Every structure is written in C-alpha cells, then in structure tokens.
Amino acid sequence: MSADIDFIDIFDPAAEYRPYARDIKEAVLSVLESGEYILGEQVALFEEELARYLGVRHVVGVASGTDALVIGLRACGVQPGDEVVTTPFSFIATASAILHAGAKPVFADISLRDYNIDPESVLKCLNERTKAIMPVHLYGHPAPMHELMRIADEKGLAVVEDAAQSLGAKIGERKVGSFGTVAAFSFYPTKTLGGFGDGGAVATNDREIAKKARMLRDHGRVDSKEHVLLGYNSRLDEIQAAALRVKIRHLDEMIERRRAVARSYGELLEGTDLVIPVEGEGVRHAYGLYTVRCSERERLAEFLQRRKVGCGIYYARPIFEHPLFRDRPYAADACPRTRLACREVLSLPMHSGLSPVQVGYIKKVLMDWRKERASV
Ligand SMILES: Cc1ncc(COP(=O)(O)O)c(C=O)c1O
Predict the structure, then answer these.
(1) Which of 134, 139, 205, 215 makes an SS bond possible with 289, Cβ 3.0 to 4.6 Å?
(2) Which domain holds residue 201?
C-alpha cells in the first residue's frame, strides 16, 4: 500500500488552494489589472467580511500575525515597564511581540487538557505592573476565555487574544477573537484561513483601539500630512485580501473537513497510549493542528516518517528556554505542565485538503503503531 502513496506532509497549502483556484486566480488578476495594490477596496471589503464572520465591530488588516500582536498590544496601551502574562507553550512570536511592545512577558503554566494557559496559574503571575493577559488559542482550541475575562475585569487588565492558530474556533456561539480587548490573527499559508504569503489582522470592538491600530500599521499617520505615532509599514496587501475574500467564504466548510479528519483519527486512537485532543464543553475546535501526546514521541515520529507520514513538534521547548531569554533565566521547576507537553507532543497531518485515501492510509499506519505497541 505504501509503495503507491506519496509522502503525506503535515500541511499542504496547495491542496487548500486547488478547490478554489479558479475564483482565486480571477480575484488576484483583477487586482493586478486595477493598479490599486495598497490599502484599496479589497482590504476594506475583507476587513468588513472578517469582522462580520467574527462578530466584532472592527478589523484592521496588517502584514502578519506577529505584527497584529505588536500593533494590538500597543493599540490597547501596553508600553515599556508593563508586564503581560502569557503562555510559554506557543510560537516565539507570542512573547517576542510583547518584547517588541517594550513590555515584559511573564509566563504562566498551561492546562494539559487543552494546552492553553491555566487561569489559576495566571492569578499567581499578577502584580501592580501587570497590564494585560495574552492567552493563545493553541492548535485551534479556544483558551478558557470566560475565566480569563473574569480575572481581567476584576483586576482592570486588557486581554490580547493570540488567535493566530484558531480562526473559526468557538465557545458557544462566540468566535475566538471576539472576547478580549483586542485579538490577533495570522493568514500564514498553513493557518485555518491561509493566504498566499504573509498576512494578519487585528480585531476589536473598541473604536479608539481600531483607530490606533490603523495608524500604527501605516507609519502612525492620521492623514497624508500628519504622523502622530511611531508606526510601521504593516499593511495587508490588496492581492492577499482579494484571495482571502474568496477563501473566507469557504472557511466553515474547510474547518468542518478538518473536524472530520480529527474525528477519524480520534475513533482510531481512543483508548491507545496516545493522548488525543479533546474538545471542551460547548467548544468548536478549529483543528489548526491535530496534536497528540506520546511518551515515546521520538519513536513514533520515526515510525511515521519511515511510512511516509509527516509530523511536527509544536513546541519542543518552553519559550523562556530559547536563548532570546537567556538574560532572564527561569527556575528549572517553572511551568512543569509546559515542560511535560514539550517532551511529548506530536502533530499529525491536518488540513482541509487531505483526501479520503490519505486519511485512510494515515489511519492504517496508526493502526500498525497500535498493534506494535500492544505486542510490546
Ligand atoms: C500562536 C502564534 N502566534 C503568532 C504567530 C505569528 O503569525 P505570523 O507567522 O503570521 O507572523 C503564529 C504563527 O505561526 C502563531 O502560531
């Protein structure tokens, strides 16, 4: 069976492009022909459409998810001297955005149930310098927003949602990115709404924060003559916006396809030695990634690779253990649940373009792993 199957990558952005290729080509071509390439009609329309999808008042398109975090933090008033409580179990951009805003990241531990920041641990990190909490909706599973918003409201803190991996995830009927003071999204090609290069967006219900984010993304200007903030050149391109406008119309069906793949993996892996992702009550997991935990991760990774199934490790070490943080060492026993996750997590192929044949093949390989483990 494996002889006639090509290697199955963990991501395949082209497979998520092909079903919509005709419309995307047409949309991109019409931008090329319009001559309007920066902050034109396509970005404005995409911002409206994404705001409607999320159920928020304002969306500001920017050049990447990282920029959306930096601009979001600054737009809600985070500044040098402030502390921002966040998770160490995320992509480096979460914490580097806090550094870019001039503030200090303070790391709370995660819950091993959904790998998101643990509200109890957040409470232990607060002090008079804390300005904001930055949860990450990791892998597509919402962070515990009701509990975090309760803490933030009580203490008068801003909440900056890092929703880069989770566009389309919900708690009840509310989409992630609609709970906090401000939220950041990424359109990196492998995300649930993947673009064709870099791109990102800031979302908020606050008119003043949206206004500030618009200024920050465009050199801090209020109009063509006046610059009032130290801003950036961080604009979402018209070409990206035009293509994203096509894909956002299909976002929910793409997420449903991801969810069907997750169900398929889950049925097979339930009750094995792999810890599978679980969906919290009333939650819609968007499955940006499908991540299991395995005490013999390196063996499993090798087993999969040898049988042409790609996998990835997100993340192999807590953010604070990167050399970037060598000047502020963390105690060896800090964030034990994050450390355990870093040792054991492994992500399987997950995207909406996986074919039934590919899913069937991956399941067969996982079944072989199961058999091999049972006979040990
Ligand atoms: C959790 C998280 N935050 C932020 C980012 C940064 O997004 P971008 O790559 O669009 O800058 C990513 C991207 O991988 C991410 O996964």
Answers:
(1) 139
(2) 15-108+115-248
Q: Which residues line ligand 1 (CB under 6 A)?
A: 64-66, 90-91, 93-94, 136, 162, 164-165, 186, 188, 198, 200
CATH number for the domain spanning 293: value is 3.90.1150.10
Rounded distance from Cα 138 to ligand 1 centre (Å): 11
My answer on whether 22 and 8 are in the same domain is no
Residue whose CB lies within 8 A of the most ligand 1 atoms, among 69, 71, 73, 91, for a mutation test: 91
HSE-CB at 129 with a 13 A cutoff on CA atoms is 12
Question: Residue length, the chain?
Answer: 376
Q: Which of 248, 273, 301 is the last residue of a domain?
A: 248
What is the full per-residue pLDDT of the chain (376 aa) written as tens digits?
566 899 999 999 999 999 999 999 999 999 999 999 999 999 999 999 999 999 999 999 999 999 999 999 999 999 999 999 999 999 999 999 999 999 999 999 999 999 999 999 999 999 999 999 999 999 999 999 999 999 999 999 999 999 999 999 999 999 999 999 999 999 999 999 999 999 999 999 999 999 999 999 999 999 889 999 999 999 999 999 999 999 999 999 999 999 999 999 999 998 888 999 999 999 999 999 999 999 999 999 999 999 999 999 999 999 999 999 887 767 777 899 999 999 999 999 999 999 999 999 999 999 999 888 877 6
Predicted TM-score (pTM) above 0.85: yes
**What Rg value do the Cα atoms of the chain yield, rounded?**
21
Residues 70, 237: Cα–Cα separation, whole Å:
18
- Nearest protein Cα to ligand 1, atom 10: 65
Q: Both 200 and 294 in a single domain?
A: no
Query: If we measure between CA atoms, which residue out of 206, 226, 205, 204 comes closest to residue 215?
Result: 226
284 touches 169 (CB < 8 A): yes
Q: Are residues 6 and 41 in the same domain?
A: no
